[in-house]
Amino acid sequence: MEPSQxxxxxxxxxxxxxxxxxxxxxxxxxxxxxLGHGVHRSTSGDTIVYHSGSNPGVVAYFLVSLxxxxxxxxxxxxxxxxxxxxxxIQLWGKHYRIELPPLY
Length: 104
Fold this sequence. Notes:
By secondary structure, the protein is of the alpha+beta class.
């Protein structure tokens, strides 16, 4: 595949990264879900796509700022690292001036 070739069409990418359904999160107004992940529209106009997951002994989280074309993936092999994982995400957002969605 040539570097200029796209994996998916721009219209498909827009649909993939758009909110499709409201979700209820305790203490969070206006939370939205896309096609398999959360979609957060910040007050600055940025779109953040994110998802978390866990199994016994494994925790994972990803976030991508579509406007800044910047993101992070965090995977840990312990359920005890959630406070450190959340702090790492907060530091990333602060460093890049990204308004994060509510973390849960």
